[in-house]
Design brief:
This protein is an alpha+beta fold. It has helices at 4-12, 61-70, 96-111, and strands at 17-19, 26-29, 32-40, 48-57, 75-76, 86-90. A 6-stranded antiparallel beta sheet has the order 1-2-3-4-6-5. This is MmcQ/YjbR family DNA-binding protein.
Length: 123
Amino acid sequence: MADAEDVRRIALGLSGVVEIESDGFDFRVGGRGFVWSYPERIPGQRRTIRTDVAVVYVGDEAEKQALLLGEPELFFTAPGYDGVPLVMLRLPEVGVARLGELLLDAWRMRSEGTLDPAAPESG
């Protein structure tokens, strides 16, 4: 079972990551977001920042669909995210090791071409 503090610890352990001020969490590398708190939008209500759900960059639509269909207990999507390579991850349902794999993959895809390979790891 993972939580927002696990997201923060893992994300900040990756090279070049910056945390953006947020009501939840929001991490970027090279100016590109790779994981942040889910801004839930329910019609007729104010947006709610959900720190129990992470929005994770997955690279492409094929990977998104594979995750959504293969592990619906972990991943979902929402209106407004159609055609966008992002999935929502239910943190209480995922183990910390799997969360680490997902964030590392997202970081790798978003950091391509943005980091100095000689730069030391952060954290």
